[in-house]
Structures are given as C-alpha cells and as structure tokens.
C-alpha cells in the first residue's frame, strides 16, 4: 500500500498483518494505494554482500524509479545508461546478483574497477576519485567504499563528498581522514538521487535514482623504477 501524503510505499504481509516500510515514492493527489500481487513495483536494489546492508530486511538501499521505461530499461535519474527493477536486494560475493538477474544494468563502471591509492597507507587529506556516468545534470551522486575491509560502509571518510552530475558525469571524491587505508580487494556502493539528503547513508530508501554495487581493487601507488633511483644516486656522488 502507499501513503498519498508522503509517497511512502509499505509492504503488508496478508498472512500475519505485519507492515514494513518498503520505499519512498512520489506523493499523489489520490489513489487507493493498492497494488495487484503480480504488479511490478519499480524499485532498484543493490547486490553487495549483505553485511553492507543490501536486502530489504537489512534496510538495504532502494530507489523508487518514477517514469521507468521497461522497453529501454531507462529512467530520468540513473547511473550509466541502464536500470531495471527488483523485488529485493540480491547480495553476492562478487556484487553481481543484480546483473545476473534480468539485464546487466550496473554499467556506470566496467569490468573490475580499480582505484590507485596516492600512498599505502594513504595519508590524511589525500584523495581518490572516480568519474561516474549519470543523468540528468543536477542529480546528486554519493559513493561509499569499504576502505578498512571491515564488511560495512561507514559515513566518515568511507563516504564521498556529494557530487553533482554535470555534462553526463559526476566526479566522486573521497578524502582520507586517517593514515590506515592500504591496498586490498573491497566493495563500492554508488547512489544517485534528485534529493541529496536521501543518499547520505549507504542504506535506506530514496524517492528516485539508482544504486549500484561493485567489487573493486584498491591498488598501491606506482613504485619508482630501481633504474631511476640508481641513476639519481650515481649523479649525487
């Protein structure tokens, strides 16, 4: 059912009567709020391991998809160029449960994304960034990276600054708050929405947009070739 005043969508268990908040949707002037059992609710979920909060039961990120076009798998607010709908989060170790169910719509980043650290460990105040395809201009993008490998997304330096989509891309930037981040395999979550306040946490509902989860690699910084070091040492003699 739905609340016309707030646009909130609620899931009701008809056997037990239990009611759970499902997602944020657009407010409306009037409707009965009922949906047929088989009617698709256009919602996008994530697919990182569930320790990151992925399923509905874990308050996973879920984005209503207003004006979803099921012929082109697109919507006005999205990451990349494709989006599809799910009934719940699909956590997998490779963060590919969404892609393996329906279309491969997690297309803002390709392959196994890699981010090169400026130092290992990264130093306080240093940054890393990603260029993320998005639409429309003016929408907001926030990213979350599990820098410490603890199996959760934090809202300190693991949350990026809020980026604005401009010219079809958003420059998503993280600034390190301590000197403990080292190279590792870990996970990334990207969220886009028209309302920046709705994506300031890695979980919970948003009234539009999309969430995409990725397994990523944090690479160490490039090493200086020994030959260069040797030559510099020679000329100092």
What attributes does this structure have?
237 residues; 5% helix; disordered C terminus; globular; five-stranded mixed β-sheet; 1 helix; three-stranded mixed β-sheet; single chain; mainly beta
Q: What is the number of helical segments per DSSP (H or I, 4+ residues)?
A: 1
Radius of gyration: 20 Å
| Main beta sheet strand tally, sense and closure | 5 strands, mixed
How many strands?
13
Strand content: 25-35%
**Helix-strand pattern, N to C?**
EEEEEEEEEEEEEH
The general outline is globular
Mean pLDDT rating:
87
Distance between the termini: 79 Å
Please bin the fraction of helical residues.
under 10%
Structural class: mainly beta
Work out the count of structural domains: 1
Strand order of the largest sheet: 6-13-11-8-9
Low-confidence stretches: 233-237
């Amino acid at each position: 059912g739905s609340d016309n005043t707030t646009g909130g969508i609620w899931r009701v268990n008809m056997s037990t009567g239990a009611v759970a908040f499902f997602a944020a949707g657009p407010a409306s002037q009037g409707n009965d709020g009922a949906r047929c059992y088989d009617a698709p609710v256009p919602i996008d979920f994530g697919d990182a391991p569930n320790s990151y909060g992925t399923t509905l039961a874990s308050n996973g990120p879920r984005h209503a998809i207003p004006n979803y076009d099921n012929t082109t798998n697109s919507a006005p607010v999205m990451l990349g160029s494709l989006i599809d709908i799910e009934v719940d989060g699909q956590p997998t170790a490779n963060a590919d449960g969404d892609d393996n169910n329906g279309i491969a719509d997690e297309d803002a980043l390709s392959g196994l994304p890699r981010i090169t650290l400026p130092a290992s460990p990264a130093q306080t105040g240093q940054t890393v960034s990603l260029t993320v395809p998005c639409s429309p201009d003016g929408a907001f993008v926030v990213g979350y990276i599990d820098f410490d490998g603890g199996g959760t997304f934090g809202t300190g330096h693991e949350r990026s600054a809020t980026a604005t989509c401009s010219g079809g891309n958003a420059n998503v930037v993280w600034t390190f708050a301590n000197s403990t981040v080292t190279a590792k395999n870990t996970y990334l979550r990207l969220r886009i929405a028209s309302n920046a306040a709705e994506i300031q946490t890695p979980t919970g509902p948003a009234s539009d947009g999309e969430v995409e989860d990725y397994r990523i690699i944090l690479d160490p910084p490039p090493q200086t070739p020994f030959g260069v070091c040797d030559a510099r040492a020679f000329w100092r003699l």
